[in-house]
Fold:
Amino acid sequence: MKHAFTRAIGAVSVFLVLALAARAGDDVQVRGGLANGLSVLAEAQTAPPGLAGRIVYLGGAFTWGQGASRDALSYRALTTAAVRKMAPKMRLVDFDHSLAGGGSWLAAFRTPTDVVQHYMPLCLAVIELAADDAAEDSVRGQAALEGIVRQVRRAHPQADMLFVYACPADSPAITWHEEIAKHYDIASVSIGVGAALNDQTHAACAAAIRGLLEKGQAEAAGSKPKKHRLPKPLGQTPLETARFVAYESADFEAGWKTGQENTLDERLYRSAVGKFRSVLVCEQAGPLATLRFRASTVGWFGSVGPDSGDLECSIDDGPWQLKTVFQAGRENLVPQAGLLAEGLDPAAEHVLRLRVAEQIPTGSSGRTARIGCFLVNGTVDDRYKGLTPLARIDAVYKAMEPLQYMPPADRWQFIPKTMERLRDGGTLRIVMLGDSIVNDTGSSQYELLLERMYPRCKVEKIRSVRGSTGCWWYKEEGRVNEWVLKHGPDLLMIGGISQRDDTESIRAVIHQVRAARPQVEVMLMSPVFGGYDPRADKEWAYDADPKGDSYRSRLARLAAEEKAEFVNMTGPWGDYIRHSDKARGWYMRDPVHANERGFQILGRILEKYFAPK
Structure:
C-alpha cells in the first residue's frame, strides 16, 4: 500500500506540474528555483562533524496541516518526504514553526528564533503567510515580509526560499508577496484554494513543490552552493531587525509578577517561540512596566483568554492609548500579539510605559495580562552592559533565590591534584566533554568563581562539546585524541543528557584518556535540564539509589569503580527547581537548555562543590 501511495503521488506530481505550467502561468514561478538548497544539503553531509541539513517551515494554519486528515498527508510532511526520497543518504531535519494567526507581521519577529538561530545548515525556508496576510495592511505586511526575507538572506545567504500561497488566487496579499518574490528571485507556488482545504489540496501543493525540487536536483548535480544576492530593499522600513525581547528586559512596579507558569495549551501551536517558557502576569490596573528601546516598532506577544483585560500604553511620556486585547467568546487561553507603536525614530531611545486598563472588558471575568515577550524592531540595551564577566554573573545570581546546597563532606577523594593546584597556585586546565548541556554548564563561567575562591590559581576551561553527543561517539577511534588529549587536560569533566545511559562507553573514554595521560583526574556529572521536569516526577529523589538500575545510580557506581569524582548535579538542581516560586521555564531559553539564570544554578553547584571545607 505504501509503495502504491508513493507511485500515486509521483504520478500526481508529474500531472500537476504539467497542468500548472499549462495554466495562466501564475501558479508556479520558478525564478531562482531550489537547486542551491539541494547543494547546501549535499555539502552539509561532508562538513565536520557531519551535521544534518534542515528545512524550516514558517507558516500558518495550512502549514500546520489544516484540512489534512493526518499530519503525514500535509504538504509539509509530503515535501520533506520528497526531499528525503531524492537524497536518501543525506541527513535532513525539518522544523515546523507554524502558528495560526499573526501573518507576516508576527512572523517577522519570530524569524530570528524560528529560522535564523538554528545551528544546522539551512537548505530551504518555506514561507506560507499569504492566507493570514489577507486582511493585513499592505504597507505593514510588505515591510514585515521583506524583513523576514532580508533576515534569512543575511544569516543564510546560501539557503533557498519558497513562498506558498494557500489562499484564493485573487487575494490582494499575493500581489505584494509576488512583488517581494520577484525582487529577491524567490520561487513561489499558488494553490488557488477557496474555503476548502483537504488532502487533495495538500497533495497538489506538495506535487508542485516536488516539481521544483526535481528541476533543482538536475541543476544542482555536481554544483557548489552559491550565495544569493541581497539587493536594496523595496520598502523604506522593512522589519529586518525584528526580534523577540525577553520581558525581563523591562522594569516592573509591584503588581507585575515575573516567571509565572505558562498555562497555554501547547497543542494550539507548533512554533517553538510561542511556547513561552514563562509569562509576565498582572491582574490589577495601575502598576507600570517600563521598557527602554531603540526601534521603529514595538509590540507584545502573549496569551489571551476569558479573564483577560485590555492594555494601555504611553510612548515617550505621550498620552495614554487604549489597546484592545480581550475578545469575547474565548473559553481557553490562545496566543495573541499586539502592536503598541510604529513609525518611531529607530536611532532614538524611546520609553514604553505599559499598564493594565482599569475597565474590565465586557464579557471578561477579569483584567489579567499575560505577556510572554516584547516585540521590537530594533535594539534593547543589555541591563548588564559594562559589567565585567564576574560582576555580570553575580548580578544575575543576586536577583535569584539563593541555592541551598550542602556538598558531601567526603568529596574530593579522586581529585587531590586538582584541589592542590587550586589551593597552591599555578594553572588548572579543565576539559569539559559532552553535549550542549555540558556547554551550558561551562557558560555559567564557574571558573571565575573558582578563581575568586582560590586567587593563586588560573583556571583554563575548554569546552569540547558536540550537540546531542555522548561518549558512545567520543570513544571511537581517534576522537579521544581530537576532543580531549590535544587540549592537555589536568581535569576531565564528563556529563550531559546525551550519553544514552551508556556507562560502559564513558568507561571506555576514561580508559583511553588514562592510557595516554595517566595524570588526568576525572569528574563525572549527573544530568541536568533537558526535557526532564523534576517537579512532575513523583519518583524524584535527591540522591540516586546506590543499588538501583537508573542511569544516575550506574554512573555513581562507575565513578567509584574507576576512581573518578562523582558530582550529583541532578539532586541540587532538581531541588532548586522544585522549591522555586518561579516556573521551571524561568530558568530556560528553550524546552531543553538553560538560560543565564539556569547557568547560575549549575555554576553555583560547582562553586559550592569546590569551595574550601
User: Anything to note?
Assistant: The domain at 389-610 is CATH 3.40.50.1110 (Rossmann fold). The CA atoms of residues 431 and 484 lie 7 Å apart. Residues 1-25 have pLDDT under 50 and may be disordered. DSSP finds 18 helices and 21 strands in the chain.
